[in-house]
């Protein structure tokens, strides 16, 4: 190659690299996170090419999304998820569906070397050991979308120098209500989250603080920290999205107005940052004060239970997650009271014989078994 040709080759190579669009698929494109992800992608059209969109039940919305974003293909429901996650054309897959249906396709994507932007909680709560082991084996990045884990991810420079993770919790609608008020809460009261607008299941989990419990377990797997080095602090304004403490005692936190667009955008564009859907900037002076307090474990025993089940490991967190979810559904159906969610979940956890190092099939079997048991127990209760 002559010198001149060589330079032309380099220039073309650089241009191709600069113009390369990130190829992305979204599992759960019709849900709350999926819709917001598409708003981000619309703003960053020149940065992304959509390979596939997978929706849950909303056929009309999926069709509208397909018309607008022109993916290579779409799918509705669980069928087709394996195909999407086996498509090595993907640079990244945003797993934004809720529930356990996210688990197997995520593992398939990891085995195919595709990076994951993870918004699905069950993936790590049910099978964190397996998922992180496979990710390491295949050199795949798991980039968290949840605002707390995203904040921690943004704060960490050298994980070996970090001593502690500090996860913030808004405290939900019952933070300053009495235990009695909470015990007698209606569905409407539980769904009235003061800071975040989310799906029903996660909103109830935020009211009982189980959501924070699940996030502790996710943080343990994502960042490889012992449970004793993961703290929770209640912060009602939801401005500090979480923080880390370095070995020298310095604390680094990530701040911003509550908006899911920012963590979604961060996760799918990582390690780059773009203006995209820019967060409304806030001024320290306007905010004036930020409050922090210790969580009240008597009122919110779910957090303690999550620590215990997390430390137990194996299928303990599978059991807790399944029992809690079934109890939340029963609460949303008006069958039980808010406080019963914890009592039922605790009972199922107490009775569960934990399997250590379960396989994926064993995890799904425990999940199914606990759901059945929980439903039967609730039927007897009412
Ligand atoms: Mg969160």
* N-to-C series of helices and strands: HEHEHEHEHEHEHEHHHHEEEHHHHHH
Tally the helices. Answer: 17
Shape: globular
The set of bound ligands, ions and cofactors reads: magnesium ion
Strand content: 5-15%
Oligomeric nature of the chains? single chain
The total strand number stands at 10
Q: Give the terminus-to-terminus CA distance.
A: 81 Å
Structural class: alpha/beta
How would you state the average pLDDT, rounded?
A: 94
- Gyration radius from CA atoms, angstroms: 22 Å
Weakly predicted, low-confidence segments: none
Share of helix among residues? 40-55%
Largest sheet: 6 strands, parallel
- Biggest sheet: strand arrangement: 3-2-1-4-5-6
Give a description of the structure.
With 382 residues, the protein is an alpha/beta fold. The chain is built from 17 helices and 10 strands. A 6-stranded parallel sheet has the order 3-2-1-4-5-6, with helices on both faces. A 4-stranded mixed sheet has the order 8-7-9-10, with helices on one face. α3 links the parallel β2 and β3. α6 packs parallel to α11, α11 runs parallel beside α14 and α15 packs parallel to α17. It starts with a helix and ends with a helix. The site of magnesium ion (MG) has 4 residues, from α7.
